[in-house]
Amino acid sequence: MRLSRARRRGQRLRAALAAALTMVVSSPGWLPAAEGTNGLLIAQSAAPTELSPEEQATIAVFERATRSVVFIANTAMQRDPWSFNLFEVPQGSGTGFVWSRQGHIVTNYHVIYGADAITVTLADRTEFKAKVVGADPDHDLAVLQIQASEAALQPVIIGNSQSLRVGQKVLAIGNPFGLDHTLTTGVVSALGRTIKSMSNRTIEGVIQTDAAINPGNSGGPLLDSGGRLIGVNTQIMSPSGAFAGIGFAVPVDTVNRIVPELIKHGKLIRPGLGISLVPDAMARRWGVKGVIIGKVGRGSIAERIGLHGARETGGGRIELGDIIVAVDGKPVDTIDDLMDLMEQHKVGDEVTIEYVRGKRRLQVIAPLQAVN
């Protein structure tokens, strides 16, 4: 019996489809296809992709460290002009991490700046109202505290930044754009960078990385390949406001020095001489290289060792105070330079101060006192 042309065409089509499916089934890495709910045949993978040792290590670090990372929401109170009722307005969000089992959370100062209320969300999605324990705008660091059980708090493992090498792997965990617990990886791109804080003070020794850091990552941990904290993600350099391959983190050695002070005193207790200084701009206008002492505090170390501040002489003329030009042999050109050198010491340490008085260059050893 002769088949119609349409039936012969249908048989050839079914034969071609069967041959194609046979090739798929017999190809390496595939199992026989299963029928989906819509009647289509779905090829099944024979086995999951095997992870490399490096991938497995990264996953392990993320799964362990993410328990220490928190989401921070910053809200301000505003009053309705018609009803006069108060209501909360979101100001922004960021990241932080658990510092201690007493509920201390470390983040950036700019994350909580201007907040009337702060909410911290732990990795298990429980929320807590947080209070500000202490803040240091000059280093863009702040410490919060929440009332959570010790069992719910997993402090981050503290590393060190002194032994970091350019090229070593780093991991950043944060909440960019409100997306919780996002991991990015990269390397240490450079060390010893300087950036400006909100208070316009220079932060020294900053870590530069190409691990993607975006808005919302601020205050999150920068980790080494072992999951140890090596820095706090703080700023990005970008013309568009999004990450462009250059991010900065405050080094953990700085964090480890400042955070205990913020927990204990609520602020950073700085070592100093007990002096007020003439602004750099005025010193430059007068052609002075160094830092001019404006006033010496009564009873201060500076008074005890004989430093002089500015004073008015006869005829209404102003005589400049002593000009500090070096500390421990390291040059001082700006107020930032002087403060950075002082902060490398503790209260009670002795430093060698070099200063200019008139045409004489003098030197004195001074023990440092606590200053605000």
From TrEMBL:
Signal peptide: 1-33
InterPro entries: Chloro_Bact_Ser_Proteases, PDZ, PDZ_sf, Peptidase_S1_PA, Peptidase_S1_PA_chymotrypsin, Peptidase_S1C
Enzyme class: hydrolase
Keyword Transmembrane helix in record: no
PROSITE patterns: PDZ
Enzyme Commission number(s) of this protein: 3.4.21.-
UniProt domain PDZ: residue ranges: 262-359
Keywords, comma-separated and alphabetical: Hydrolase, Protease, Serine protease, Signal
One MF annotation (Gene Ontology) recorded for this entry: serine-type endopeptidase activity
Sequence similarity: Belongs to the peptidase S1C family.
Protein name stated in the entry: Peptidase S1C, HtrA family
